Amino acid sequence: MQHFRHYILLFLILPLIAFAEDGSQLWLRYPVNPKPRNIVNSNSKSPTIEIAKKELNQHWAGQAVDLKIDKFPENYKDGYKIVSTPKKISILAKTDLGLLYGSYHLLNLQQQKADFSNLKLEEKPSYDVRILNHWDNLDGTIERGYAGHSLWKWEDLPNKLSPRYEEYARANASIGINATVLNNVNASPNMLREDYLKKVKVLADIFRPYGIKVYLSVNFSSPKVLGGLQNSDPLNQDVQKWWKDKAAEIYKLIPDFGGFLVKANSEGQPGPQDYGRTHADGANMMADVLKPYGGIVMWRAFVYSPSKEDRAKQAHLEFVPLDGKFKDNVIIQIKNGPIDFQPREAFNPLFGALRKTSEMVEFQITQEYLGQANHLVFLAPLFKETLDSDTFSDGKGSTIAKITDGTLRPAKLTAISAVANIGEDKNWTGHHFAQANWYAFGRLAWNHDLSSKQIADEWLKMTFTNNKDFVNPVKEIMLTSRETAVDYMMPLGLHHIFAGGHHYGPEPWGDYKGGRPDWSPVYYHQANAEGIGFDRTKTGSNAVSQYFPPLNEIYNNIKTTPENLILWFHHVPWDYRMKDGKTLWDELCYKYDLGVHEMRDYQKTWDKMQAYIDQQRFSEVQDKLKIQAKDAVWWKDACLLYFQTFSKRPIPSDIEKPVHQLEDLKKIKLNMGHHN
Ligand code: BDP
Fold this sequence. Notes:
Largest sheet: 8 strands, parallel, barrel
CATH topology of the largest domain: TIM Barrel
Shape: globular
Number of helices: 20
Helix content: 25-40%
Protein name: xylan alpha-1,2-glucuronosidase
Number of strands: 15
CATH superfamily of the largest domain: Glycosidases
Radius of gyration: 26 Å
CATH architecture of the largest domain: Alpha-Beta Barrel
Number of domains: 3
Strand order of the largest sheet: 6-7-8-9-10-11-12-13
Catalytic activity: Hydrolysis of (1->2)-alpha-D-(4-O-methyl)glucuronosyl links in the main chain of hardwood xylans
CATH class of the largest domain: Alpha Beta
Keywords: Carbohydrate metabolism, Glycosidase, Hydrolase, Polysaccharide degradation, Xylan degradation
EC number: 3.2.1.131
GO biological process, one term: glucuronoxylan catabolic process
Bound molecules: beta-D-glucopyranuronic acid
C-alpha cells in the first residue's frame, strides 16, 4: 500500500518535472550523456580546452572528437574548421578559443539533429570584438533592464561567487560573444575605485577561459571625483597622469583588460567639452594610456544638446569635423539610428561619413522601446536592416556591415556592440523569447550574413523542439514580430511618441513644457491640421543632406522616400495618396489595425503550440502575448484617437472601433520610474 502511494506520487510529479522548464538553460539544453565519456583528444592544453573537453564529454553523443591547433593564416583569429568521417570528427583552429567555439558549434548542430557523417564547414567571425554593454549600476539596478536586478553582486564580490557568472560566460561563448562592458554608460566614478577593480578582476578571471574580455564604462570626471584633482580636463597633465596610473592599476589586476566605453557630454554626463576640449581630445587622452597594454576606447556618438538643431542631425554635425583626429585605438560607437533605438529609424548617417576613423554599431537588445519584457519582438530583422543598409559612402554596396567589418576600409580593429537584456531573472531576459535577441546579436556579430530566418530556426530548435509543427508557425511569428510592433506602435516612420520616462506605452500628446523640446513626443510627430511627420527635407531640418547621394535626393523627395520612413523625413498632408491609393490618414488607421490583428493571430497560433512544449514556458509566453495584444489595442486607440483630433477624418468603417476614450488614456500614468 505504502508502495502504491509512492507510485501515485511519482505519477503526479513526473510530468511536472518533465514538462516544466523555467528557461534558465537558454538555448543550451544539451542532453547529458548517461555515462561519463572520454572521447576528446587535443594537441593543446589550457583551461579553455578543458572546458571544450568537459562540454563534449558530457553532452556529445557522437563519434570521437579531435581538437587540433593547426597552422592558419595570420588573421585567422578565432575561426575554425570542422571535418568529419563516420568514425571521427576533427575541429581545427588557430587558437584554443577557436576550438571551444567549434565544440559549441558541434553541440548546437546536435541539438538541431544535423547529419555528422560527412561534415565539412568553416567559420570565421565577422568582427573582432563582439561585445555586450550592460547598463548595470553598482547598486544592483539596471538602467532599462527588464529582467530583474543585475547579475553582478557587487556586495558579495570578490569573495562570494554566484554560479551564474560562469553560466553567463558559457552562454556567451556558445554563440561567439567575446567581450562585455560590466557597467552602465551613465557610469559611476566608483567603478574605478580600487575595491571595485578587485571585484572586476574576479569576474574577469571567471570569464577568461571562455574567451570573454572585460571592459568598463568610465565617468569622464573620475580624476576629479575619485582622485580629488582640480578638474578632469584632458589636457591637464595631472589628469593625464591620473588616467595613466589608473590604467597601470587595472592592467596589473587584469592583464587582458579590454578598455573603456565612454558616454561623454551626452544627457548631462561630463566630458571634455566641459573644459572647451573636443571629443577627440577626450578620447585620445584615454587611448594613449591604454595603448601600451593593447586596450581600446569605444567613444559613443550618442550626443545631442538642447539646441535648435534637429536632434537627428547632431551626432553627424559634431563628429564629422573630428574625422582623422582620433588615435587608432579609438572606435566611435554609433547607435543604429540617429535618434534612439526606435522601433524603426532611418539608419544613422554617421556610418560611412567618418572616413579616417573606425566605426562600430551599437544595437539595443533590451527592449526599452519595444514593449520591454512583455512584448515578443524578434530583433534579428531590425539588426539586419541596419547592417544591410547601403550608405553609398563609397559607391553602391557600401553597407553598414561592410563599413564596420573592415571589408570596405581596412581597419585595425573591428567591433559590434549591443545593450544587453540580461538580469537575474530565472530565464535571464524576462520574456522567454527575449533570449532569442541575445542569441541573434551573438550570431550576427559572429556572421552578419546569416539570415533572420536561419537564426530563428536554429534558436527555436535548440530552445524548444525540433518538431516542425512547432518550429514553422512560431518562426513565422518571430520573423514578422518586429514589423507587427512597428505597426501597432509607430508605423510609416513615426517615432518617439512614447510615454516620457519609462517609454512603455503611448503618449503622442506628450508635451513636457519647460523641459527640452526634444524630450516631448509632439516634437517628433509634428501633427497639425495639415498633416503629420517631421520635415527633414532641404526645406525642413535638412537632415537629408547628411546622407550620401543618391540617398539625400531619394529621402528629400516624398515620392521616392520608402513609405516605411515617410513620416521620418516628411510632413505629409492627411489626404496624401499613398502607393496603394489610400490617403495617408486611412493608411495610418489600417496599419495600426493590422498590428492589432497580427497580435490576435499570434495568440491563436501560440495556443495551438501547447502540445509541443513544456507547460511552464507555454503558459508564460501565452500570458505575455495577452498583455502584448492588449497593449497593441491601447497603442492603436491612443494614437488614432489623438491624431484624429488633428486629421478630423473618420476612422475607416471596416476596422475595429476604438474601445477606449482618449481622455481616459491620457490619464494613465504608469509608475515605472526613470528620468527622461
Ligand atoms: C537612451 C536611454 C537612456 C540611456 C541613453 C544612452 O533612455 O537611459 O542612458 O539612451 O544610450 O536610450 O546613453
